[in-house]
Write a structure and sequence with these properties.
Elements: H1 5-14, H2 20-36, H3 48-60, H4 66-72, E1 77-81, H5 89-95, E2 100-105, H6 108-120, E3 126-130, H7 133-136, E4 146-152, H8 157-164, E5 168-179, H9 183-195, E6 198-207, E7 214-222, H10 236-239
Parallel strand pairs: 1-2, 1-4, 2-3, 4-5
Antiparallel strand pairs: 5-7, 6-7
Helix pairs in contact: 1-3, 3-5, 8-9
This protein binds S-adenosylmethionine.
């Protein structure tokens, strides 16, 4: 049995209570992650304690935003754009089983891995969708239909807003996970956030539990519908950010 004291202490700091079953789901997810990582590129972080802190606790630390904590305590619909190996979407689904989660990634190999995780952990109300955010948010099924959109380590706020805000319902929230100093990035992203119907309400800055890793969450509320011309096609989201 591995020593997960660091994880338990971090959970306490975040005020998240997990059952033995949920703790076991995290253990199984860790095993699947490092096993699959031998044959495909999922993560550079593989040491047990590092994964507990830098992936699991970091993903869960979105609860540092009181708005996010409130939504996650309800049966909200959450989308994780550019989820990769499932961060932050899978830890959030394990810790808050009543939420509905859509994991989205442009790489099908990662989606296949996520489907294995979903089935092994017997997670319900969760789907892994293959595709690019800027294409899928044009579909009625996904457009403006989520209470909360999260995204970690995918792009800068200007491009990321065009990828993510179209998925969010009016009154819902887009919360990108950011690290270090983000003032300049935030300033550069203001125009995009505004044009897409968002309004930056606050930035929550903290240190990830059991580490000295500085994290910022930008809490963006959707105040008006995203105009139909967004997101733009042909790679403009990245080559010519708003
Ligand atoms: N969110 C995960 C994490 O924090 O560990 C993965 C981060 S990884 C650096 C970026 C992920 O975003 C990759 O899995 C990539 O395939 C995905 N991605 C990049 N552009 C995307 C897009 N336009 N739509 C959907 N996924 C995208």
């Amino acid at each position: 049995m591995r020593d997960n004291t660091v994880f338990k202490n971090g959970l306490k700091e975040l005020n998240i209570d997990l059952s033995d079953k949920q703790l076991e789901q995290f253990e199984i997810y860790y095993d699947m992650l490092v096993e699959k990582n031998k044959v495909m590129n999922l993560t550079a972080i593989t040491e047990y304690e590092d994964v507990l802190i830098k992936h699991f606790l970091d993903s869960l630390s979105v609860v540092r935003s009181e708005k996010a904590r409130k939504l996650l305590s309800s049966s909200c619909k959450l989308i994780d754009v550019g989820t990769g190996a499932g961060f932050p979407g899978i830890p959030l689904k394990i810790a808050f089983p009543q939420i509905h989660v859509t994991l989205m990634d442009a790489l099908n190999k990662r989606i296949n891995f996520l489907n294995e995780v979903i089935s092994t952990l017997e997670l319900k109300d969760i789907e892994a969708v293959h595709g690019r955010g800027e294409e899928l948010s044009r579909k009625d099924l996904y457009r403006e239909s989520f209470d909360i959109c999260v995204s970690r380590a995918v792009a800068k706020i200007n491009s990321l807003s065009e990828l993510c805000i179209p998925f969010v319902k009016l009154g819902g929230f887009f919360i990108p996970y950011k690290s270090g100093s983000i003032d300049e990035e935030l300033e550069e992203g203001k125009n995009a956030v505004h044009k897409l119907g968002g309004h930056s309400t606050d930035v929550v800055r903290f240190t990830v539990p059991m580490s000295d890793y500085e994290r910022s969450l930008v809490v963006i509320e959707k105040k008006s519908n995203t105009p139909a011309q967004f997101p733009r096609a042909g790679g403009k989201v990245f080559s010519k950010p708003l």
